[in-house]
Amino acid sequence: MDNVVEQPAKIPHTLVEDIMAIVLGTLMVSFGVTLMKQAGALTGGTAGIAFLISYITKSTFGLAFFAINLPFYWLAVKRMGWAFTIKTFCAVGLVSLFSQLHPLFIHFAALDPFYATLFGNVVTGIGFIVLFRHKASLGGINILALWLQDRYGIRAGKLQMGVDTCVVLASLFVVTREMLVASILGAVILNLIIAMNHRPGRYFV
User: Fold this and answer.
1) Which of 82, 84, 38 is nearest to 61 (CA)?
2) What are the pLDDT digits (tens) for 148-178?
3) Hey, how many other C-beta atoms are within 10 angstroms of the C-beta on 185?
């Protein structure tokens, strides 16, 4: 008789677990953002656009990030449903809030910008994984990319890459060359963390 290994039954996350995970994930993402903002760096996606706006207009990252995400919630409802959209709205709001609060409690007397950029992306990547595992995200360009892929057949990965390329090109007029290199390396690290740890079928819960 063949040995059959039964897969364990999926155990859904409880509401309390989802709330704790969203708070923890957004704390990590916002701390990574704080490190990158302190270093004068950038990242990709919606957060990268928010960084550019905050550098150019001198507005806060939190306000820019929250405002940029507002138009995408309608698409999130259509493609992902209300549960995902509500979690994402809460996650975006908390990242915006926490990114404003961190500097009130943490002051860096000495911070190497290159190290802060790379480590900030590592922390942010881990925070993303926590959010993804609880069916939440930070919305923005990723939702638009998935919607365009479903509606018009435009590959989501290509659109995301195109947006990131535009952010990088725009950053040439905002950040130093050293920070540009660090930002590109940081974005690669962040995406590697997500690629290695967020694959369909890898986890049972």
Assistant:
1) 38
2) 777 787 776 677 777 877 887 888 888 888 8
3) 14
